[in-house]
Amino acid sequence: MNNNHIVGVFDDEDTLMEAVNEVKKNGFEIGEIYTPYPVHEAIEAMGKKSRFTLAAFIYGFLGAAGVLAFMYYTAVIDWPVNYGGKPTNAFPSFIVVTIVITILTVTLASLFTFSVRAQIYPGKAYILPDARSTDDKFVMIFDKALSGSKTGELEGILKEKGAVEVYEKELKPQK
Amino acid sequence: MDTKITLSKGFQYTAIAMITAGAAVIIYSFIADPARAWANLLLNNYMFLSLAIGASFFIAIQHISQSGWSSMFKRVPEAMMAYIPYAGIIMLLLYFGMHSVYHWTHAEAIASDTLIQHKSPYLNIPFFFIRMVLFFIAWMVMTRLIRNASLAEDTQGGMLWFEKSETYSKIHIFLLAVTFSFASFDWIMSLDVHWFSTIFSLKNFVAAFFHGSATVVLVVILLHEKGHFKALNKSHMLDFSRYIFMLCIVWGYFAFSQFMLIWYGNIPEETEYFAHRWHSGFKVIFYVNFFINWFLPFVFLLPQVLNKNIRVVKTIAILLIAGQYLDLYEQIFPAVLHHPVFGITEIGFFIGFAGLFMFITAKALAAAPLIPRNHPYLEESLHHHVH
User: In angstroms, rounded to a whole number, what is the distance separating the alpha carbons of residues B2 and B368?
Assistant: First the structure.
């Protein structure tokens, strides 16, 4: 299988975004963008949407409701104990536990959701076109098979828009 | 670019009419029921002072964090700070009403009460007013320095005044932390002289920051509706509502912490405060307070479809001003009057003070260009964009 990609390396966010907009205008499909930190504009430009916040909200809501229901069941229904004359349904004292366990639920559930959705797990083979994108460079890759005969034009646009390097590379999963 | 605003005749007449109508009610109520009038005076003056203090803290935080997004709006909190000297004068008038509101000023109470005797080295009338004067001097000096630095930046430009603003702001927040804590202990907590809570000042300080920020947002939106702040966009609204959202959680955290620990500890000296606030009609206010100040902003400013919407944020900001009134009502009125009252006196006082606050803020807004000229981050603010 031919897995050759065009790799464009950029120095900063602004030149990267200019190039992204330009190649999109010329009808090229961006394969992937690697950045040292999250660049929300790049995610938007690639037409990707995240429903992650909605998922987190649902986890939080279910977590809070679940914890309250659990405490109500244990403290009021199953094993009512009189603590210092307080009502068994000591609602104000449930709140603190609810907050803490809600945070825990959201954190863990979000972590697992992200891991499943992005198919990332410990020991997975990864594809990294240019290791410098983990340091200070912004890297954009294109599938060479998709650009076909217009490869030269694509490389021209990337260089014109300020890419410090443009090269071809065959991508292989690394361990 | 000249962005000076002029006050319309209609606005000035409205404000003056509000002040006059308020003054008439205030004078009448001092003759009819002095204790209630003093409680109202304390509530309203403290409330609008807290909005001004909250605004000054808001702008100090913007200076210290070198925020770009908010630099276009910095004249609004600056203008709100102009109320502080007037609040100082009105607060000093409390000298004539000490006996009506503060139980610890009564000679017979001191004579028969060991706890008040124990507190009297701190809680006595001369020291109370010495502290009050010191607090107001500190706030007036610091807010004046911040305001003047901002005005000097308009004419001179450069980075000098930007850096000075940051230095002044750093001093201001430290001063504010100490002075406003003691101020809320003195003016509000000492109403219930037998009761004390160490988180009380923190809760009141956060309430001031919370409602002060909400008022800043409200003023910005009102000016936007009048055709100013044309560059106000969805990103600004998102940041403003994040501010209110964050502060509603912090407020809820402190208010609930104070209540929960006292409720759980169940020590008579402490629960007395809330027991008193759960009697008769006050209990409704206790729940409505949490509903307006925590639940509504939390639910309505959570989804991004709502928190970028100017009308939603405006409604929440107006409700939060009512929320601050309610919060203070719950703290002050049970201690002074022992049963809930609300009538023409309360409305008249509020209208009078609201008119005064509006008038002073608007005058200060008109005194300088609405959008600062030479702030280094002004361009960033005008084209602010977040995802």
Answer: 10
